[in-house]
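Subject: Sanity check before I submit

Could someone independently write out the structure tokens for this chain? I want to compare against mine line by line before I put it in a report. The sequence has 268 residues.
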Amino acid sequence: MNRLQVELIRASVSPLTLDSLTDIETFREIGSTNTYLLEAENPAPGSMRVVIAEQQTAGRGRRNKKWYSPPGAGLWMSIAYTFVTAPTHLSALTLAIGATLAIEIKALGVGNISLKWPNDLLVGDRKLGGILLESCSGGMTAVVGIGINRLLPEDASRHVEGIQNPIDLRELLPSVPTLESLASRLIESLMTAVKKFDRDGFDSFAEDWSNFDAMAGRKIVVQQEGCEESGTAQGIASDGALMLRTNQGLHRIVSGSVRVADCEDEVA
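---
Independent answer below. Compare away.
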């Protein structure tokens, strides 16, 4: 029997959101919540499906990095949403989700939450969470994996690939929300976000994302396909592209990994 209680999650989600939820599934252990949804039946247009696991044994981050997701240590959740209208800039959904999560985590009482393009939730320069966007059905269905560190074991930093020390909600809040209450809160806000993105695109999220931008004005290094480019981060474009000012001018970066220029650890 799963320790995650789906009935408590459903009871805390509004009827309007429940009307657009195809399903909420919980697992004590799963390989990857994203993989599970990529292989499952897609929700109908305008609908969302949710999978939450207590533990992932094959959790993934960007560029196929292992995502450390031990039992009970965090919220390991994926959503699948099928668009009504084909998105123009699907990759920008990562940033829209990031802005949505940052707002919710700030509302919990984490005052210094920030976002690192394109997919990291930071507190200071430590990683609280991350987002993994994948798609299927020709880009009409998006699968978004979300990991939020909640109660990490003391040796967590030994298991995390390629980032600075992680941080969790236990270190940041006097009282850590239950997995069920955190999940229901985020499901509610994510449903609103994906429908808004479906209707309006990224434009309506750009200002919120910029308000949490951890890299703006900082010297950074962008790695793309085996090459690196250094410059100063100049925020994001209206479609979510990273703007990088170099000696050659202002460049648009639509994919890649970013690190602070004076930091050897990649946070991506």
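---
OP: Matches mine. For the report I'm noting this point. The CA atoms of residues 206 and 222 lie 21 Å apart.
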